[in-house]
Amino acid sequence: MSELPNSLEDAIAQSRVAVQAALADGCTRIQVEFLFPELKFMPVAEQFLPLFTEYDSRLKIFFADAGAAALARRDWADAPFQILDIGTGRAASLQTKIQPEDEIFLFIAPTSVEVPQLEKLCEVIGDRPLILLNPRLEDAGTVGIGYTARKIRDRFLSTIESAYYLRPIDDESAICRCYPGQWEVWLETKGEYQRIAELPTKPSGDDLDLILMKGQPQTTTDATPAKKPNVFKSLQRFLKALSS
């Protein structure tokens, strides 16, 4: 990524390109995350949907619960794709949600509560591609922090490729990843954002703290300057515009 996006709209556009690249490389379990506070997922999903235009009725969309799915069916009444909820029923009922003619799947904002059902649905989906948009799958209070949680991560969560990730750490720093690029840490220095680190894997909290404390390139290349983006300073304006 040569620079951070200038707006939430730009970030969503970047994410569509990243997902296309991941799909072209054969990735079948992909996630996209915009980690902004108070971000409403429906307006983001609407801007993300053009990625699937070619699939028409072969796209199937899942929401976390029946209420969200019902609202989506109301708002997207003319859409060619089918909208369902992940559900909490028996495995047999989950299997009926996936049909042979379905080619690609979009899960919108699933949470850690739905992880058992989501994992079963993914087993039925098999090698067909699926995209998780703004998932919240690793809540320690639900998934846990012990042996069971590790098994879930190793067996299921670790199979998901992060194609796009954007999280402001504060008003002066951010972490992002745009497939097939590396994980990047950006820091505002003297009025412009600079990429101060590139990493092959997502940095942990401690690693991130060290990188930000040093505030200098962590690779052999020079820090890359970029025009100061406004995605952080203008975040409230974008959220207000999207929710209106």
Automatic annotation (TrEMBL):
Domain DUF1995 per the UniProt entry, residue ranges: 5-209
Protein name: DUF1995 domain-containing protein
Organism: Nostoc sphaeroides CCNUC1
Superkingdom field: Bacteria
Pfam families assigned to the protein according to its UniProt record, in alphabetical order: DUF1995 (PF09353)
Transmembrane annotation, as ranges: none
PANTHER family reported in the protein's UniProt record: DOMAIN PROTEIN, PUTATIVE (DUF1995)-RELATED
